[in-house]
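To: structure desk
From: M.T.
Subject: fold request, one chain
Message: Could you run this one when you get a chance? Sequence is below, nothing fancy, just the single chain.
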Amino acid sequence: MAMTTRIGWLIAGFACTSLAMAEPSDTELASLLKERVELQRWATGIVLGITTPEGHRVVAYGRFGLADARPVSGDTVFEIASITKIFTSLLLADMANSGEVSVHAPVVGCLGSDIKLPTRGGKQITFIDLATHTSGLPLRPSNLAAQPRPGEGNIPGKYAAYTKEQMYQGLAAFQLDREIGSDFEYSNWGFGLLGDSLARCAKVNYDSAIRYRITQPLGMPDTMRQLSTSMQARAATGYDEKFQPVAHETVGEALEGAGGLFSTAHDLLVFLDAFLGRKPSKLDPAMTSMLEERRSAGYPELDIGLGWRVETLGGAELDSRTRQMIVWSNGRSDGFRSFIGFNPRTKIGVVALANAASNLGAEDIARVVLGSTEQPVRFHRRIKLSAAVLDRYVGRYQFGDGAVTTFVRDGAQLVSQRSDGGGSLLHPETQTAFYPQDVEVRIEFDPPVAGKSPSLTLLQDGVTYKAKRIE
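Reply: Done. Structure tokens follow.
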């Protein structure tokens, strides 16, 4: 359920300027999905759902699973993982709109007197701190122990056996290391707390709150945590990073606010229509309020409202009259990848669902439909290189703006390490040209001098950047 982002993807913190590309046709989209399924093997089936002022359409390619030849469609059921957080955030916004809670109120007000939450400098964690990932709580609970998933022997299932009692024990013992509300840190633990505290205030369980306040009013019969008989028959098989089939991820009640919902492209297009104003409902004020108050999500062009990320396309410095933004969320479970987003100006919304735990699924393709200028990742020929060849490129390289990237060898693979601590595996196409696995960037190393390449050229979206070796 961890959130990842391609915002400011850098080889080393080096911002790449993109050139606009035309919105792909459905035929082009289908071709991209085919390439992703058959060549990149990032899923056996991918579904893109698109809503525009003209209506809905679905572009899909592939099958339910390696052993299930049924073609995927808008009715195929996928795990949506952390997109669940948008439903939890909408529940918060709706309860705030009806006066049941205040987004700025301490969460502890919904909990029993016997529950203790961490504080910092006399300040308590509020609902908005949790919904914007600025509470100071880490990604996973500090007392999370790997537990076997039902029926899977000793295979750890991160969240399946984690109980509410354990959650509150962990929270009582946890010490925050920074001021509450100060910094963005993506937190499944925080959204587990958010979901449970809202359910307690509403005096119903989390599933009932989501059903009665969101999915039933909007007409989303295929969005729920527990699969109905009909949904079970239409559920795609999930695959892990090694493309091995995995059982559906089990999220216990403690962290149900962070992930665990299943849905379909058709249901999520209905959900997007409500946010785009094409499906009026009593949730309209709550949906609007989710974007009204924002905090930084760690990048100049990226903020976070209640659950939703709000990204300025092309850079935050653009003139407000021409600036566009996309509002989005994504998710990844043990066997699935999901994305949902919309462009408030063009009134286009996109859902991308894939049945494997890849880095991207079809998120990059969906972003292009929404107006992003990033090129979708393509499949490139891959060859094997010896350790001796790879060692020519190991080192630190500096771009013209001062940004530095480090290349290291991990066995028979070259890996780039970004200045923000992240990294990416590089696939060689030739003896000198490499492509990262999760963004469409070409890196061409110059011929070695004294056994080491002295420089490189980075190409993205038709723009080139030079970097020189400094170590």
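Reply (cont.): The two ends are 37 Å apart (CA to CA). Let me know if you need anything else for the meeting.
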